[in-house]
Amino acid sequence: MRSKALTNLELTESYNLPDQRGHFGPYGGVFVAETLMLPISELTEAYYRYMKDKEFLAELDYDLQHYVGRPSPIYHAERLSREMGGAQIFLKREDLNHTGAHKVNNTVGQALLAKRMGKTRIIAETGAGQHGVATATVAARLGLECVVYMGSVDVARQAPNVLRMKLLGAKVVPVESGSKTLKDALNEAMRDWVTNVDNTFYIIGTVAGPHPYPAMVRDFQAVIGRESKEQMLEMTGHNPDVLVACVGGGSNAIGLFYPFIDDHEVAMHGVEAAGDGIATGRHSAPLSAGRPGVLHGNRTYLMEDEDGEIIETHSISAGLDYPGVGPEHAWLKDSGRAHYVSITDDEAMQGFHALTRLEGIIPALESSHAIAYAMKLATTLAKDKTILVNLSGRGDKDINTIAAREGISL
Amino acid sequence: MSRITKTLENLKQAGRKALIPFITAGDPSPAFTVPAMHEMVKAGADIIELGVPFSDPMADGPVIQRASERALAHKMSLRKVLELVREFRLQDDATPVVLMGYLNPVESLGYQNFVDKAKEVGVDGILTVDMPPEESSELLPMLDKAGIDPIFLLAPNSTEERIAKMGQLGRGYLYYVSLKGVTGASHLNLGDVERKIKEIRKLTSLPIEIGFGVKNAETAAAVSKLGDGVVVGSALVGKIESAGEDTSLALRDITDLLSSMRKSLNA
C-alpha cells in the first residue's frame, strides 16, 4: 500500500471539534499561566499554517515512510482469535514503528514544527519512556538540544528506555515531586517551558495539555486510523466492527478512532487501566471512575479527591499511570460516540502472555490492556465480526517489570 | 469600592508603596496561618495573598511546591482556607485578603458555591494562576456580583491586546510577573521590568503590583519604585521552611523580613 493516507489531513465531514479556542464541548481549552499564552498562540498559529503547507506535509510524509517505517501493517491474529472462539482479532502493528511505539508519529511531526518555528531546544515529559525515546530520537536526528522529564518512580521501572534516551544524547531529569510519575513530569516540563519560552519547544506526548496540543497530537496520530481504514478494506472488504485501544492520555486511541468518528457503524472502545481494580481506588481510570476538572491546561475527567486535589494513580504500566485523559475522550464519552472500559493489572498480564505465546508478539504493558479487553470482547461476538486492536507498542521495555512481578530470575 | 481598591488608593494618596506578602495556607501547619497573618499586618503588610495549596502547582518553583506539600499533608483544602479567612476576620476587618491558587479546587467546590462562601467569610480577591481571561467568562460575573476582585497576572511577554483586556476585566490590581519563570526564580532584570511597566501603564489605570524575584529589602525597594507595590512569596515561605518545627522562629523571621522591607519601601 502506498501512503496516500499518510498526510491526507482534511477533517472528517460532520465532526469538526475542537472549536477555535480548543474546546470539545465543555472540555479542553487553554488553562495556563499568562507567560505561556504567547508561546501557545504562536504554536497554534504555526500548527494551523503548516498543517495546510504542502512542503511541510510532504516532508512529514517522507519522514513517516522512510524514517518511521510507515505504513505499519495490520496482522490478523488468527491463533488468538481461534483460541477465543469468537470475533476475528486484527492488530494494527504500531509496535513495528521505529523506536517501538506509536509515539514517534507525533514527535516527528512536532519536531518538524519546532524546526520551522526556529526553536533550538526540545523538552518533553515521559511516563513509560516511549515518548521520551521518540522525542530524543527526533532531536538527535535534527541536532536539537533535548531535555526529558521523567518521574523518578518511572525512571526506576523503565530503565531500558532511560538508557536509550541517554544514548541518544538527551538529558533525562528525574522528577522527585508529588507522586514522582507522569503527571509530575508534566508539571516539571511546564515549569521548564515557562522559564525558557523563547528558545524552547515543548513536545507533549499525548492528546492532553492546553490547546492546540490535543488537536495537534491527534492530527499527527490520525495516520494510524487512516491507514487502518484502507488496510481493513483491503483485507476484509469493510470497516472493522469494533476498534479497541488503551487509554492513558489517549493518543494512540484517538489516532485510531478519529478517522472513524463519522462511520457510525464502527464501535469504539477505549480501555483504561483498572490497576488493582476500580473498587480498590488504586487505578488510573478517570473516565470510568473520575469527574471533570482542570489540570495541565485543559478541562477533562480527572482522578481527584473531594477537595479537587489530584490523587495518586496506579497501574502496572507506566504509560497509563496518569490521573487525567485527553479532553476529546471526555467529549466522546459524554456524547456516547465512544465507550470506555477498564482492565486490571492481572488481566493485562493475561493479555500480555496470550499474545506472546499464541502469536509470538511481545506487547507493551499498555497495549496489553487493549489486547486483554479485545480477548474478552471477542468471546461475546460472532466469528464473522472483526475487532481491530491498536497494538501501540512493543514490550521489550517492560521485561524487567514482568520478571520482578512474576519472580523470574534472569 | 472594594477593600483592595480602598487600601491601594489610600496608599497612593499617602505616596506609599504596597507591601503584599504571600504565604501558603496551612504551611507548616494550619494553626500557624492566622497568627502569621496578624503578625504580618503588624509588620507592615497592606494586603495578604493566601496561597491555596494544590497537588500540582505547575507555576511554582520548589520552595512553594514544598509548602503546598506540607500543607496538604495536614489535609489543608480550599474549604479549610476559607475557614482560616473567617477566623482572621474576627480580629481584622480592614486588611484585604486575596486567595491565590489553581483552578481545580475551585471547580471542585463549584463556582457559585465557592463565590458565596468566599464572600461570606470576607475574601476580597481571587487570583487563579491557570485561569486566563479567555476561560473566565462563567466565573467573572459571579465574582462581580459578589464584589470580589478578580486579579489577573501579566507577564513580560503579554501582548498589548492582552494587557488591555486584563485591564478591562481585572479589578483591584494587576499582578505583574517580573520574569519568565516560576515563583522563587532569581533572574530578575530591573531594566526589563521598567520598560514593560511603562507599556502596561499606557493601557490600564489599575494599580500594578510586582512579584516573582523579590527577595529582600533591597530588591523590594528597587522593584517597588517601578510599580505600585511588591509581592513577596518564596522569600517568606523559605523562612518558614528553614524554621522547621520551630514556628515561633518562623514567625519572627517572616516579620523581621517584612519589617525590613516595609522600612526600605518607606525610605
Question: Would you mind describing this structure in some detail?
Answer:
- The complex is a heterodimer of chains A (410) and B (267).
- With 410 residues, chain A is α/β, with parallel strands linked by helices.
- In chain A, 42% of the residues lie in helices and 18% in strands.
- Chain A has 2 domains: 23-67 and 103-217, Rossmann fold, CATH 3.40.50; 69-100 and 221-406, 3-Layer(aba) Sandwich (Rossmann fold).
- Chain A contains 16 helices and 14 strands.
- In chain A, the strands form 3 sheets. A 6-stranded mixed β-sheet of chain A has the order 3-4-14-9-10-13, sandwiched between helices. Chain A has a 4-stranded antiparallel β-sheet with strand order 1-2-12-11.
- Chain A is globular, with a radius of gyration of 19 Å.
- With 267 residues, chain B is α/β, with parallel strands linked by helices.
- Chain B is 51% helix and 14% strand.
- In chain B, helix 7 (139-146) links the parallel strand 4 (125-128) and strand 5.
- The radius of gyration of chain B is 17 Å and the shape is globular.
The number of helical elements of chain B comes to: 12
- The low-confidence parts of chain A are 1-6, 8-12
What characteristic shape of chain B results from the CA principal axes? globular
User: What's the order of the H and E elements of chain B?
Assistant: HEHEHHEHHEHEEHEHEHEHH
